[in-house]
């Protein structure tokens, strides 16, 4: 089956999916279960075989740009006055192939907020079956968990953690933070070993889990790697396929954008779907005037860094292993808006003892909203990403509260006994002003951007797509990935993005 054609000629696909990441790989697998449906998946990065991913991609302790499979995006300087890396995976499996492997669900309160916006069909009770469908885990209670899904989800045991991570959990408990055994069960709040889609140190991305060798042999599924898509092709308001960066037209009855929060929004804009004034300024004909890129938001990450006692040199795997999931004083009922993670994503040469770690403070519910716009019409140009980090006083206060909690845990036995000293922000940074300055100097993206094309009801002025990802006012065009999540959730979004693809595949096809 040929995968390209000129206008008006050649084969047509029933569904063409742009992007083979956390959502796109799921859709390709699920939609091609129907042998009568012809599915084409286009991925901008390499399409490795399921058992042929390079070590840097497969190794769960290598993340982000260190995998060598990143888009290389940087943000605008924004409020903090400097750009930060905006890591996104460029490989079959997408960002599920380069992230920390956390497999943690959103909370019922997160979906209740979506319902309060008028978004139907996405309550926790309505999506729990899809969380269970994706999951293959031996842990937890049957009513919460799936046993036979494509994605292996494994609960780390306490004995699998590093000495630092064990001491972190115990010190948190000494501060009154309960230990929990299942962050995806009835009692997620507390201190726990991480739940991860990692098996024997291998990060099982969606390109491995959903697009296994059996799925890839389906005659009605074609997967092409190293293909950059320029834009969606339209006849009037109907999507008819895509135009590749080399000018090739690929025709399809339906186009699904699963290129991620940055990629899908940029594709929509290049296709003439977005704010009309912005498109006209770039000479892009307007197909649909929609607020693409106007509600972008990302969770934030700050590293409280410590030098550890030298006897801990080398005890660094798993790199990410233990979590405190809790609520700040700013959290709404049911929210858990702080992640504290003891992790070994730390260059030991920066420690005078040769050993060290960080307590990464994740602020999960930022109120600061950014934008994504185009720098130009060329698909090789990175979009302009302004996360507008720390623009609100509430965001700064939440993060500082998280830093103070991290410090209290670090000052508590047994963690205190294995710490030599605090490297960052450092013992002299004690006031809120000191901490705010330190945060602005070194804050990073958590790598969880969402909402560049959010779901919403017909009367939601922010909404770009409906509850099943259909783009407003257009036919044959859908978006299914993190860009459609309408606001931040209390967890890393990867598992929820996989769930969303399962949910839409179940309801829409």
UniProtKB/TrEMBL annotation:
Essential cofactor(s): FAD
Keyword Flavoprotein set for record: yes
Keywords: FAD, Flavoprotein
GO cellular component, one term: membrane
An individual GO BP term: glycine betaine biosynthetic process from choline
Family: Belongs to the GMC oxidoreductase family.
Name of this chain's protein: Choline dehydrogenase
The organism of origin for this protein: Actinacidiphila yanglinensis
